[in-house]
Design brief:
heterodimer; A: about 80 residues; alpha+beta; Translation Initiation Factor IF3; 2 helices; about 35% strand; globular; B: about 375 residues; alpha/beta; FAD/NAD(P)-binding domain; 2 domains; five-stranded parallel sheet; four-stranded parallel sheet; 8 helices; 22 strands; about 25% helix
Amino acid sequence: MSITIAMTLDLKGLSCPLPIIKTAKAMKELAPGQLLEALATDPGSVSDFKAWSKATRNPLLESAEDAGVFRFVLQKKEA
Amino acid sequence: MSNDVLILGGGVGGTIVANLVAKEVGDRARVTLVDATGTHVYQPGFLYVAVGQQHASAIQRAESALLRDGVKLIIDTATFVDTKARKVVLKSGHTLRYDELLFATGSRTVMGEVPGGLAAHDFYTLEGAERLWRTLKDFTGGTIVIGVAGIPYKCPPAPVEFAFLLDDYLRARGIRDKSEIKLLSPLNRAFTIEATSKLVQPILAERGIELTGFFNVESVDPSAKTVTSLEGETFEYDLLVLVPPHRGQKVIERSGLGDERGWVPVDKNTLQHLNFPDVWAIGDTTNIPISKSGSVAHYEATVAAAEILAAVKGEAPPAHVYDGKVMCFLETGKGHATTIRFDYDHPPVSPTPSRLWHWAKVLFNKTYWHTVPQGRLP
């Protein structure tokens, strides 16, 4: 499996629920197994990404914070 | 030389600003308000029209009857704003000049952006609410699906309120046991605000309203009567009610004054355009990450009016700025309601639903015409 990021979404400055909705749209473009990186500044996105990953079964491989920017890496689930 | 204050839009925000400026300005400025229809519509009433509790005539008045004598009303539509020449071109071909310009043009709904979406009902326009009521009157049972087809949209709790009022209506008709109500939410809760969602979710469950989370409507198949989400789920429906995608008005996009959805970028406190200091925007029209609702337009209007007055008088901008204040009522059915209050610095709080808040909403709806447009409520 490749670890390269297939797509990066800059969601900084957007507030809930836009980050998760834009991510849901972008994930549709990916092939199974591909990775999406999302960068957000809304603190609510931490729990939203976790819950979205669980509900849609697209694994959340990373959830981290660096200087107020949250970085999430999601993997598109196998079809 | 006299100054020209030009206001685009005769909704709650534009009307308050026009009246407050005209009251104070004396002969220092002319105040002109341009409205597309000349009819002032109380949009929170759409919800009641959709379930047959109110008639369309009860939620609209002539804009001319709500404006002070000092405001000139022009019934026309702005088609282009030239910020260099400080001119606004109208559909009729006339041109108006301005020294201070306010966008209070609200939002427009674009259900056509959703593939198959035009087959769905909505309660986000008066026509939509009336059509939904005509369909509901003849409804004899089946699955009613309520979903959200675009963010941001006006009045975030409205789909939840509609579900509760629909539940009341179907019970009163004696067909609730033959009907299912499914509420599809873009997030994993009833709507954006977490504290209030926690409060209303047990009531949804108690009424047998089935909540499905992370369902962002992507498309509708009118022949199969199904609705599908971005997340890949599909539901069947007998009656589909969608919150349509929203955009700002075309004049904003055409004049290059907004973002890709036509929302005007303004300072979240002063409501002044980020690139043009003689242009302000309030209400749905702005790109501020705050609820698109009448209460926001109302609170912002008092700030914008003070800013515009200071500009007319050549004074320093007022110290009082918009603090992100929002106050909404939320009907929870069975004659009960709660409220949601918050601002930029204070998270939302909601009291336990009660009859008191329902009656407060009824009273507000009735007294609106004599208090809010005139700027009589702070």
